[in-house]
Every structure is written in C-alpha cells, then in structure tokens.
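Example 9 (inverse folding). The structure is encoded as follows.
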C-alpha cells in the first residue's frame, strides 16, 4: 500500500505540467470564442445564451492524449525502479480521476465567470436540458474519465502489438463502420435505428426528460470494463526500448 501511495504521488507530480497545458488550452479556446462573438456582435448579429463546445471538446481530446502518452513516459521509469505492473495500473486510476475532476471544475469555473459578461452554458447542459452546473460537472467528470481510460486502451493495444497487428487495429474501425453501413442499408436502416435507441437509453434520453445520471453511470460502467481490459494488457506488457 505504501508503494502504491508513493507511485501515485509521483505520477501526480509528473502530471502537473500537462494539467497546466490543458487548462491554458481550454482558456485559450474560450478567449478565441469570445473574440468571434465580439466581432459577430459588432456586425449586428444577435447574441443570446452561448454554448462553447470547444471547451469540453478540448478537455476530452486532451485527456485521451494523456491516456495515450502518459503510460509510455512513466512505464519504463517506474518499472526500472522496481514498481510492479499491478502497482503501476492501480496508481494510474486516481490520476485519470484527478485530471478529469480538475478539467470539469475548471470549465465550470470558466462558465460561471463568463456569465458576468456573456450568458453561457456548457455542452452538457445543452444536451441534457434542465440540468444545472453541478450536474454538468458530474457529467463532464464521467466523460473525461472514460476518455482517459480509452486513450490508455488505445496505447496499450498498440504497445502490445507487432507491426502487422497495429495496421489491423488502425484499419479495423474503418472496415467495421463501412460494413455496418452496408448491412444497415440492406435491412432498411433498422441497425442504425436500434443503435440509436440503445444509445439513447443508456445515456439517459429515453424518457420525456433527459436523465444525465443514467449517462454518468453508463460511462463509468463502460470505463470499468475498459479498465479490466487495460489490466489484462498491462500485466504482461514487456519493457520495450
């Protein structure tokens, strides 16, 4: 347990720079969007309540990138210093939770401050109508945590594969999407309709009023499933290079 705590603290310390870069990127996107809004207003365009999707989109992409590259940066260093693969795996889970919470809270803070001069809501509030900023923060946390472990899965899949398998992993999604389109066309759109209904249900849109916490639960359950696969991949991951 002591070794796990030390590893977690080390990883958190190593992550500070990336968190700062991510936060600055989010803030820069907000400023850029404000500049566009300013010129739109100057040209006579009406401004109501704004939704800055690029803020949450930036955070989601950044967390995926952290999941992809953070493993590689720290894996060799920690294993060389006697940290087991199991300890490394469990130490990384709080890392994704911390960075997800920081970005969710940071975007919520930007949204609150932004309302003093331009009304603004988050994408989460736009999608789940009737939700408040607390709900939005929880939704964002779950979404970013999912993105982080997904990025980790992507890297582990490539890391454990040879050159031929990496090509298969890269091209397989495109082939599956193409096949899905063909099959969907053959059955008159029933497949896409079924997928849409399923996603609507698991993300909380099945009722007359969207329920964000169904979506939060679904994202966390899916993240847990991905983490199980990540554990299987990492426990025998070779030390390369």
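The amino acid assigned to each position is listed next.
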């Amino acid at each position: 347990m002591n070794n796990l705590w030390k590893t977690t603290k080390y990883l958190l310390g190593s992550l500070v720079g990336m968190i700062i870069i991510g936060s600055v990127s989010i803030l820069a996107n907000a400023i850029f969007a404000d500049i566009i809004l300013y010129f739109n207003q100057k040209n006579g365009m009406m401004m109501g309540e704004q939704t800055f999707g690029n803020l949450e989109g930036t955070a989601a992409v950044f967390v995926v990138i952290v999941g992809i590259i953070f493993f590689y940066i720290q894996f060799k260093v920690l294993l060389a210093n006697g940290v087991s693969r199991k300890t490394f795996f469990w130490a990384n889970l709080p890392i994704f939770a911390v960075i997800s919470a920081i970005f969710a809270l940071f975007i919520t803070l930007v949204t609150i401050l932004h309302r003093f001069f331009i009304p603004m809501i988050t994408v989460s509030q736009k999608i789940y109508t009737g939700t408040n900023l607390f709900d939005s923060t929880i939704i964002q946390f779950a979404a970013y945590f999912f993105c982080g472990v997904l990025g980790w899965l992507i890297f582990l899949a490539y890391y454990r594969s040879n050159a031929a398998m990496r090509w298969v992993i890269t091209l397989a999604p495109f082939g599956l999407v193409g096949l899905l389109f063909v099959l969907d066309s053959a059955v008159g759109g029933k497949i896409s309709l079924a997928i849409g209904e399923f996603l609507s249900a698991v993300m909380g849109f099945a009722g007359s009023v969207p329920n964000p916490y169904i979506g939060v639960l679904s994202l966390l359950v899916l993240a847990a499933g991905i983490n199980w696969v990540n554990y299987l991949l990492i426990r025998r991951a070779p030390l390369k290079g």
